[in-house]
Amino acid sequence: MLSCLLRGGCSPLLCLWALLLPPLVSLHSMNQHGRRSHSAKERPKLLLVSFDGFRWDYIDRVPTLNFHNIIDNGVMVEHVENVYITKTYPNHYSLVTGLYAETHGIVANEMYDPVLNRSFSMETDSVYESRWWEAAVPLWVSIQKAGGRSGAAMWPGSDVKIHGMFPNRYLLYNASVSFETRVERLIEWFSAPNEAAVDFGVLYWEEPDESGHKLGPESPLMDVVIAGIDEKLGFLMNELKKAGLYEKVNLIVTSDHGMTQLSSDKIIELDEYVSRDLYTWVDKSPVVALLPKEGKLDEIYDKLVDVNPNMVVYKKEDIPELFHYQHNVRIMPILIAAKEGWTVMQNRTGPFMRMYSKLI
Ligand SMILES: [Zn+2]
């Protein structure tokens, strides 16, 4: 579904910029019976924006006047720690539910649920199956149940019926829809007359993640990409001003994870150590999820646990508690975490290496 090709090597830190324009974000405009106690005009409004894979240090790589304009007029937090694992779907669902992945149930971009006996992939229509999402309640559903209205432009999960609801206004995911079009739709929804106006909006953009995966975050070519993101932010601010929304809409700009440079010299090939006949490969590096064939868990673990110092192999029950990544049937019995800068794959003939060889 999303066009991110490789999830490998995301760093554990990301950065968040927030511009909080008065009035502060609050749901106090809903009364105790969950009904609207203020007119749509008076209710506080919030737009949450995510630039996928915007690494913490990108903001200082090139002049980013629009980001700095927001920081100067609002607030910037020093850092935000993403949830484990550092992938797009789990983190975007955490941002709108406040929950760790093990609790909200979107534990990876690629998942297998042994109870449902179904697989989930962000590359297939499985993302539209409500049951994957319904362990949690995203903000747009909470707001609508409280009497508010919401609008969504491509945020992961926002075009899925969850607990019987879509956002009041939303776009079906389509990577070819430009950032500018997404912004224009949101501006329309926030500007709609009276009770038709949305109170909460979410906006997702695939960059700089997509270019970061293709070029590597350390590439000098990323400078142009980062400057382009700053221009997009400038476009959003201008559109808010033109529509008279700048003083009315609270804005949070954030990201889902960082990114680290990988190398074709830092590849771990599982085929060297264990036969792929013993397991099903469920999710890919940097945190690989393996589903062992019946009775093969200990054999796989024993073959992998000490063979390479650049990966950490966990049985599910041994995953550290601080990761909050254990208590869900969709978390597989064996997890392999690549150390920073390393990639775990079955062998070098996989899609990662085909892509990598095109770039070097
Ligand atoms: Zn992402």
From TrEMBL:
Pfam families the record matches: Phosphodiest (PF01663)
UniProt keyword annotations, A-Z: Signal
Signal sequence, renumbered to the chain: 1-27
Designated name of the protein: Bis(5'-adenosyl)-triphosphatase
Organism: Champsocephalus esox
Species lineage: Eukaryota, Metazoa, Chordata, Craniata, Vertebrata
